[in-house]
Amino acid sequence: MFDWITGFVVRSGYSGIFLLMLAENVVPPIPSELIMPLAGFTAARGQLGLAIVILAGTAGSLTGAVFWYYIGKWLGLKRLKHLAARHGRWVTLSPADVERADEWFTRHGAGAVFFGRLIPTVRTLISVPAGIAGMPLPSFLAWSALGTGLWTALLAGAGYLLQSQYELVSDYLNPISTAVVVLIIGWYLYRVATFRTGGRPSTR
Known about the structure:
It contains 8 helices and no strands. By secondary structure, the chain is mostly helical.
C-alpha cells in the first residue's frame, strides 16, 4: 500500500490527495497518517504547495465525513431506537441507551465532533452520531473543518519538516491507530457479553 499511495500522490497531485483523504474517511484502512505526511514531503521537494496540500486533504476528509453524516441522518433516532429494541445485544444499545447517548451528543456535539476528528478511527465514526442527533449541517461542517484542518496541517507539516524521514510520522501514529481499533473492538465485545436491557424509553 505504501508504494501505491506514494506513486498515486506523485502522479495525481492535489486531486490525488483529495481522493485519498475522501477514501480514508469512507474506507478507513487507507491511513491519513501516511497520506498527509507523504503529501507534505512532496511539497517540501517543491512539487506541490503546502497550503494547497492541506486544503486538498481537508476538503477530501470533509467530503467523506458528510457521507457518513447523511448515513446517520438517514438512520435517525427513531430508527436506531427500533433497531436497539429488536437487536439490542448486537448493537450493544437499549432504546434507553440510545436516548441517553442522543442527549449527551446534543449537549456536547460541537466538542465531540472537533476532538473526534483528531482521533484515529473515531474521525470516521463521529460523523454518524452527529447525523443521528440532527446536528445542523453548517455546525457539523464548521467543527469538522476545524478539527480536520488541524489534523491534516499537523500531518502535512510533519512530513514537510521531516522530508525524507516522513515515514516516521506513520511509524509513531500507526501503533496509536491500532490501539484505538483494539479498544473499540474490545469495548464492543465486552458490551455484547454483558448487555442488559435498559429502562423503558420515552415515546420520542
